[in-house]
Amino acid sequence: MARKTFIIEHMEPEEQKAEVAEWVLLEYSKIICTVAPDMDVVFSNLSSSNLSSLQQKLASVQPTLPANFTLTTESVSAIVPDPKSAPAILLDPQGSKELSPEDYSSNTHFVFGGILGDDPPRDRTSALRNMGFVGRHLGPDQMTTDTAVAVAK
After folding, report:
1. Cβ of 41: how many Cβ atoms within 10 Å?
2. pLDDT tens across 51-66, in order?
3. Number of C-beta neighbours around residue 92 at 10 A
4. Coil, helix or strand for 112?
5. What digits encode the pLDDT tens for the residues 105-130?
6. Which of 4, 56, 82, 135 has its CA at a distance of 20 to 30 angstroms from the CA of residue 108?
7. Whole-prediction pTM value?
C-alpha cells in the first residue's frame, strides 16, 4: 500500500501574537501522535510567525512524536497542484459521500482544514472545496481536526 500523507491546511486567521494558540499546539501534537510512523503529516499554510512558534514548541517534544511531520508556509495548492487528477481526498462535512475503505486504499493524500469548529459552522472548508478536491465526509457530526484524522486513519 502506498504511503499516506495527511495534510492539515492551517485556516485560522493570522494571530496578532507570534505564538500559536495553545489549542493549536495541543491539536496538532495529537494529530502527530495519532498518525502511524509509516505515514506523513504536513501542516501547511502557516504564517511565518506561526511556523516558527510551532517549530520551537514541537521541538521540545519531538523525540516522543512518532510520525514524520513537516511544517510549511506553502498552501495545499503547492503540495497538491492538480487536485482533480491527484490521488487526494478532502475531508469535508459537505462531501458528497462518506469516506469508504475504498477511498482510503485508492488515495495517498488526505486534506483537512485545520479549523477550530464554529457553531454555527462558517464553512471555511469551502476554500479547499473550491480548489477541486474530491470531497468525502465522516458522518453527520462536526469534529475537531485531530478527531477527524483519527477517524479517517
Report:
1. 22
2. 998 888 887 766 666 6
3. 22
4. strand
5. 999 999 998 665 566 667 778 889 99
6. 56
7. 0.89
Find where cell 508556509 sits: 73
Question: What is each CA distance from 96 to 83, 93, 115, 143, in whole angstroms?
Answer: 16, 9, 20, 17
How many Å apart are CA 31 and CA 4, to the nearest integer? 14
Q: Which residues contact 13 (CB under 8 A, 6 or more apart)?
A: none
Of the ranges 26-30, 84-88, 96-100, the best mean pLDDT one: 96-100
Cell of 34: 495519532
Distance, in Å, from the CA atom of 112 to the CA atom of 106, rounded to the nearest integer, reads 17
According to DSSP, the β-strands at 5-10 and 109-114 are: parallel
Residue of 96 and 60 predicted with greater confidence: 96
Helices and strands in the chain, H and E counts: 6, 7
